[in-house]
Specification:
By secondary structure, this protein is an alpha+beta fold. The protein folds into 3 domains: 145 residues, Probable tRNA modification gtpase trme, domain 1 (Gyrase A, domain 2, 2-Layer Sandwich); 83 residues, Alpha-Beta Plaits (2-Layer Sandwich), CATH 3.30.70.1400; 74 residues, Aminomethyltransferase beta-barrel domains (Elongation Factor Tu (Ef-tu), domain 3). It is built from 8 helices and 20 strands. Strands 11-12-13-10-4-14 form a 6-stranded mixed sheet. A 6-stranded antiparallel beta barrel has the order 15-18-17-16-19-20. The longest helix is centred in the middle third of the chain and has 14 residues. It is globular and about 60 Å long.
């Protein structure tokens, strides 16, 4: 398995290491539900070194990315970030990603388990574009500082004024824990105010330890809590809410899909337009007070009729109930709809609801 530059730090902190996307990563340092509360109430620090990081340079970089990504990347202002997807011609997603608009290049953050497939897809469709693809995953690492006190903590170890002025889905370059030229973005996968930090491998340990020492409110957090946090925030996970059999329109990700004439044609465009015109299912949230936690693959029923299937489920310490995402027939996808979840032949009542369940950055209207 691959290891991030912080592997020894995790073991020293008592992190329980697991394989994730081909990497050895900490799933938890203590009880997962306590780690979720830590992020919701104070600050959590994550190692995200397993995520793929790719830079595309050259005169055609933006036009090239616009041909293979769903969002309109040429419209991204410099210093801003957009969520997008890579899709096949039939509209099925290969991966979801973040696109950073740099002055003379594009920086992409992609999923760990899909990094090799993404790079292969990108190389396959480069064609005659005047652009160069640089895989920076092995030479850099990525941290996330998330929680209501994250701005205060990060500002204390950065150049004055750089963090307080940073807007949502914006990025800047600043000094972090004495490391000049560090990329910091106001992004995250938790639904909290938070930041993602990119450093060279040689600087990773110093920044990690500096952030942990910056304030007593900061604690290391594992991937187990991150999954619960992103589910509470209603954020899609590749392999669950989106996969080769669930397209981004059905997943409620139309905000990341551009059909504008200015963007022109791109891979998957017509298939996703057709999917939007005639949806066959919709992604919803659900809650259940029963003692059994919803899990991926559990069937949903309206009486004897199949109604859908669970994608992700967990105990939510923030809502103090069991929550899940699920795909259901479009006519059932209204908050308040009551269904039953089948668990190995036993039924448990569930109630559908809008997503997200909770988010400080994207609250329900």
């Amino acid at each position: 398995m691959k290891r991030t530059p912080l592997h020894d730090c995790h073991e020293a902190l008592g992190g329980r290491m697991i394989e994730f996307g081909g990497w050895s990563m900490p799933v938890q340092y203590g009880p997962i539900l306590e780690e979720v509360r830590q992020v919701r109430e104070r600050v959590g620090l994550f190692d995200l070194g397993h995520m793929g990081r790719v830079r595309v340079l050259g005169p055609d970089a933006l036009r090239y990315i616009d041909r293979i990504a769903t969002n309109h990347c040429e419209r991204i202002p410099q210093g801003s970030i957009r969520y997008a997807l890579f899709c096949r011609p039939d509209g099925s997603p290969i991966d979801d990603l973040l696109v950073y608009r740099e002055p003379e290049s594009v920086y992409l953050v992609i999923n760990a388990a899909n990094t090799d497939a993404d790079l292969e897809w990108m190389a396959e469709h480069l064609g005659e574009a005047d652009a160069v693809i640089e895989d920076l995953t092995a030479s850099t690492t990525m941290l996330a500082l998330q929680g209501p006190r994250s701005t205060e903590v990060l500002a204390s170890v950065c150049s004055p004024g750089d963090i307080e002025a940073l807007g949502y889905y914006k990025f800047t370059t600043t000094s972090v824990c004495g490391v000049a030229g560090t990329r910091v973005s106001r992004t995250g996968y938790t639904g909290e105010v938070g930041y993602e930090i990119y450093v060279a491998n040689d600087d990773a340990r110093g920044v990690w330890e500096g952030l942990l020492a910056a304030d007593a409110a900061v604690r290391p957090i594992g991937l187990g809590a991150r999954d619960t946090l992103r589910l509470e925030a209603g954020m899609a996970l590749y392999g669950h809410e989106i996969d080769p059999t669930h397209n981004p329109v059905e997943a409620g990700l139309s905000f990341a899909i551009s059909f504008s004439a200015e963007k022109g044609d791109w891979i998957g465009r017509e298939a996703l337009r057709a999917a939007g015109a005639a949806p066959t299912r919709a992604l919803v949230g659900l809650t259940t007070d029963g003692r059994r936690v919803p899990r991926r693959g559990y069937g949903l029923f309206q009486g004897d009729e199949p109604a859908g299937e669970v994608c992700s489920g967990a105990v939510s310490p923030t809502l103090d109930t069991n929550i899940a995402t699920a795909y259901v027939r479009p006519e059932l996808a209204s908050a308040g709809t009551r269904l039953e979840m089948d668990i190995r032949g036993r039924r448990q009542a569930v109630v559908l609801c809008d997503l997200p369940f909770y988010s400080r950055t994207r609250p329900k209207s």
